Amino acid sequence: MTCDEVAEVIDALAAGEVTPSADMSAHLSSCAACGESLQTARAIDGLLRSRSVPAPPAQFTSRVVNRIHRATWRREQIVDGIFNAAMIAAAMIVVSGVGIALGRSGVSLLSRDAVQMFDAGLRAAAQKVAPSLPLYAGAAGLIAVALGLWWWASDSAAL
Is the pTM higher than 0.90? Predict the structure, then answer.
């Protein structure tokens, strides 16, 4: 057994956590430096055990847990921000790629014509419906008044 091997377990020996083997006991009795280290470690251990343990401040645990939660939340916010920025950048790249592909393939001309046709159809339908709008508004108002009276009458009858 060497001094380095004994030095690794000297604190555990002093605390009584480890029982020395025969080789270790022989080394401790023959080596003055290791024996003295063991005695010093035992003295320190005894002093530490004899001291009273101070009580933690009030709300110590809750403060520490709150700090941990805050730090974790901040890290998660940073990770979420980076993830969201990456997703936005990826979406912009995809939209740009689709736009470029449509522009080069000529499909955008077809879609522009389809939008123009849809717009013309909407305008024609709006021109046909426009003269009837006052009639529809009056009918909707009449229905709203009838429903309001019915609600009021049923609520008054319940009292």
Answer: no
